[in-house]
Amino acid sequence: MLHILLSRHKSPGDYSTYLQLLQTCVLKNALSQGKKINSFIAHRRFAFTTCTTSHNKLIYMYVQCGCLVDARKVFDHMKERDSVSWNTIIAAYRRHGYPQEAVALFHHMQQTGLKPDIFTFASVLSACANMGALKEGMDIHQSIKDKGISNVVVATALVDMYAKCGSIDKASKLFDEIPQKNAITWNTMIAGYAQNGFVEKALDIFKQMQLAGVKPDSTTFASILPACAKMRALEQVVQIHQSIKDRETLSNVVVATALVDTYAKCGCIDKARELFNKIPQRNVVSWNAMITGYAQNGFAEKALETFKQMELAGVEPNSTTFAIILSACAKSGALEQGMNIHQSIKDRGFLSDAVVATALVNMYTKCGSIDKACELFDEIPQRNVVSWTAMLAGYAQNGFVEKALETFKKMQLADVKPDSTTFANILPA
Q: Is residue 29 part of a domain?
């Protein structure tokens, strides 16, 4: 079909068809088709090959299809770039987990003499937030002030940057100065307080948001519920639950899962299960929340039972699932079930995951199988403080005091700094 369309449109001046085809590729995530269009036009002397707008469409197509390498190739070969070209590639690097490159491109853009706009600033501030680059973010903030830019999108991005970089007072001051706050602005401040441990402040902002007549959305609820969970603020949870029902957002799997997790953390495990059973499309996060809820409330057998139900439902466990369920096995001393899960982990290729491997070490030591734990510990490629502490604690708890002390010395030689949990386990030994 693509070949037929291309063969019909060879006029050098008419490239609207190619733009339409590229948009179709974006909508259908058809990377291979997009590459064919790119190849086709690259070998023909169309106006398309020199048009900045057309190149921008190509970059956008590659970015949306997840091919950052080819997007960058198109960008690098452009003779002329406009703000759309720069904004698309900067946002792409930020979104795909390369914040340093996004910031580097921002500086390169300025060196070319092109002025950043609100979208550029929003992307680069988000990149700074993602890598905790407070000084870089503050410099950009100063540049924004110097240019006299006043926009709710940029202001919200600044609040987010300061909050994620741990400068919550600065984030709060900026938030208070924003004259027209939208739902995203309120959500950003709620999340900022919650993530920095200021749970009561997060709840206070949530109340102010409602008093200001701004309706909470799924993002609001997903941010405020974990804050309630930390405080075990059951009364507030019940009120928020009612608000969610009133707005008919319980069908949102993220919100429903956050409610399950919050009720479980508040000790209302039956209520958590009731809500869990009503989620129409349960994903791995939903199952993990329910399994964690049972494990943390002392229902290890229920956690194991729910794990089996998850597998029967055809939902693939992830590393978090295995870490949770192994912890449940450790607490209940369920060695046989732990060994079965170990086999499942091997079959799925999760043994190379340090978190899962450490959970296995912990499970075997708690179940008294110290030799197996030691064997697994030796196979962990990148051992962190948690891995070392798990093995050290295993030796200490099973009466191998000299082995525990020896492991502590090896840990120091490996230049891994002990934490409070390490000392809590080694001092009695």
A: yes
